[in-house]
Design a protein that fits this description.
Blueprint lengths: L2 E5 L2 E3 L5 E8 L8 E6 L5 E7 L7 E3 L7 E6 L4 E6 L8 E8 L3 E3 L3 E5 L2
Length: 116
Amino acid sequence: QVQLVESGGGLVQPGGSLSLSCAASGFTFRNLWMFWVRQAPGKGLEWVSGIVPEENGLTYYAESVKGRFTISRDNAKNTLYLQMNSLKPEDTAVYYCNLHRSIDYWGQGTQVTVSS
């Protein structure tokens, strides 16, 4: 049974940093692409970032976060990460870890609020 558990969200001031984690289980994590997706209040889902199965492999970012966010993974720990720097109020959202197969799997999400 696929399980994705996000953690690390919170309240941060503009310009600050947060590090999100996603603990994965129930599937062969090291073989699969993983993604971060977010949903801002009153808006739809927005893809944030993706990473190939290999550690230190190719990564992809939405233009809105490029240069500020870094996705990474530790296949030995079955964990996905998102380092978020230079946070802006428009980054306020619930952040979800996503596994895309024949269906999409989601965690419960972690709230990130950027506000002074």
